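Format notes (please read before filing issues)

Several people have asked whether sequences and structure tokens are stored in separate files. They are not. Every record keeps both together, in the order shown below: the sequence lines, then the token lines. Line labels are part of the format and must not be stripped during preprocessing.
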Amino acid sequence: MDSTTPTISAVLIVRDEARHLANCLRALRGVVDEIVVADTGSTDDSVAIAEAAGARVVHFPWCNDFAAARNAALAAASGAYALAIDADEYLDQPESAREKLIAHVAAYDRHTVGTITIRSYTAAKTWVHDETERLFCREAFEYGGAIHEQITPREGVKRSAPTGLSVLHHGYAQSPEDPSHKARRNIPILKRALAAYPNDEYFWFQLGKARYSIEEYAESVTALQRALACMQFREDGVVMGRLGPVSRDVLTDAVVTLAYALVNTKQIDAALHLIEEHAALNHAGVLWADFPHVQGYVHLMKGHLDAARAAYNTALAIGPEKEDVLGTGSFASLYHLGLLDEANENIDAAEACYLEAIAQRSDYAPALARLIDLVVEQDRSLPADVWTTVDRETFTAIYQDKLESTVRQRGAQSAQGLLKEAQRIAPELVDACRVRLKAMQEV
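Then the structure lines:
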């Protein structure tokens, strides 16, 4: 490495992350100049894993303050720049990551923070994208905020620019019933933060998201309504929060999550009013595909089929380049258009929508399931080339489940159509079906 190139330290705060930590640290190898782990009281093998990976471990007693823990890791680092990573994240393409980091440092001054794309897999089996600030000059920035801590300039103004890095995140994949769900840890800290800053829209937003993630929908509604009430929606389109402009992603997420929470608490009229109110405001948050997607869903719940179709088509027109939850501007909206076509008894159009959704996401289970359902419900044949389009493992599992449920509900004879289709599509599929039928007979 050129001696004039600034060094980069990866900094992590860790507590009982043995399940994920090795993968995280392995992906950082050769990307950064050092790894610093601030352990906040692990009782598992996290410290041993970090030390075995060559990380410098410092111990920081947990004090319900994420920023304090982050700053302890920063203080122990020696690199001119810090790359903040969580233990349940790992670099998506580590082979090109160092080049991107060095290029960013060379292209921008020390007051510019680098963002990375966080691709999170959720318990709802969806992928969510966030652009988050993670790379910064250690002398120019520190962390502030007890929870959902923010990179804060020591002086001057903060700017940001993308690094091109992306990481895979599995921290949202916990089931709502999991007693160790991160939301249960975060909620008390968020409440303390709100006691100090009761008009902070970001803390209310994060509390609403935490409540939603553990299916406390009524509490989520209350928190997200407070978040939006704390925002100032100006005529120039800029939305202001306690500390400055509210980011586009927070705006979109707050409105969309509130709409779903209202539907889940059977307040569909309130959800429709919310959607119409923010569509009229036309702020940056409604210009992302996630907004018309939920708009279509709310109209669907109200039985407004034409309005739902228009909304889903708008989401597709916005496209996958502007979607936070993967599929809102692509395969998920296509799937919902297929459902609308089925409601209008246009089965050919519905099948075309499902096939296009699968062409965009070969393992998209809802569209795969509806295609298979059409075989039973409409006595249809699947396209001859469907086996080359689908994710075969996912398709086979859904096909087997449909076969089993059909046999149990209607008898063995009723499954002959599915078996015939499986034989026509692929020998591997019919073999899998026979294995399932044999297992059913042995029970």
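For reference, the curators noted about this record: The CA atoms of residues 27 and 360 lie 28 Å apart. The chain has a mean pLDDT of 93.
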